[in-house]
Amino acid sequence: MLVIIGYVIVCFSVFGGFAMAGGHLAALFQPIELLMIGGAALGAFLVGNTGKVIKATLKDFPKVFKGPQYSKATYMEALALLYELLSKVRKEGLMSIEGDVEDPHESPVFGKYPKITADHHVIEFMTDYLRIMVSGNLNAMEIENLIDIEIDTHHHEAVVPSHVIAKLGDGMPAFGIVAAVMGVVHTMESVGIPPAELGMLIAHALVGTFLGILLAYGFVGPLASTLEQKADEGTKMLQLIKVTLLANLNGYAPAMAVEFGRKALSSVERPGFAELEEYVKQKR
């Protein structure tokens, strides 16, 4: 919703300001210029990226029109789930969660936390390392190194679409100049026509530069920023799980391990200590 509102503000500010200054909006409607800029951008997008990257970018694109992937409530669910699993381990031993880890969607423990079970990647990440803990073959340092490698890989993959969109936005002004130059070439071919018509052709040519810059900084560039922020959200969830599990492996009680995870969150999404404690009690 914020993306749509932002686009409306951009259009109203630019085109509304132009109209209030006495400009004629019809002069800015140049579909041929848009065709040249958009077509060149699409071609460059296809040439500059592999099929895997193109597919990932198209898959992630709808995310910009959705709200935050992870809210404060989602983080609280993750912390409460980890607390319940680690408490079960503390009371009954590591083997007590083997069934929960092997089939989380059938587990009564995981079933209490629908926001987490609906996220395939988070569930896979969490259960993989709980499974490693159950096996008992790796120490805390080895598990930490392994988690860091996976988080780095995940983050690298997650930010690729935002980098692709950013590069596309960077090229828009240049494509606008290309469209403008094409318009100037056409104008120079028409030397000798009445001055009024010649002025019209020059104006049409300049619209290409205007559209390229507007699309770059008013439309495409902000999308890249939004996609990057959403990728960071996903990484933050994995960091929360990492910190909590490692704290438990290092001997801290479940309540303290969850406190480590809570501290990994930014101040905007971080629940208070008493708030999280009350939430965990309600879920047990």
Structure description:
With 284 residues, the protein is mostly helical. It has one domain. The protein is 77% helix and 0% strand. The protein contains 11 helices and no strands. It has helices at 2-20, 31-47, 51-60, 72-92, 98-102, 114-117, 120-135, 140-189, 195-249, 254-263, 273-283. It is elongated and about 90 Å long. The relative contact order is 0.15.
Unreliable stretches, pLDDT < 50, 5 or more residues?
none
Could you give a short account of the major beta sheet? none
Beta-strand proportion:
under 5%
Distance from first to last alpha carbon = 36 Å
Number of helices: 11
What is the typical, i.e. mean, pLDDT? 87
Helix/sheet category: mainly alpha
Q: What's the number of domains?
A: 1
| Radius of gyration, taken over Cα atoms and rounded to an integer in Å | 27 Å
| DSSP E strands, number | 0
Helix content: over 70%
SSE run? HHHHHHHHHHH
Principal-axis shape: elongated
Features:
284 residues; mainly alpha
Question: How would you summarize the topology of this molecule?
Answer:
Elements: H1 2-20, H2 31-47, H3 51-60, H4 72-92, H5 98-102, H6 114-117, H7 120-135, H8 140-189, H9 195-249, H10 254-263, H11 273-283
Helix pairs in contact: 2-8, 3-8, 4-9, 4-10, 4-11, 7-9, 8-9, 9-10
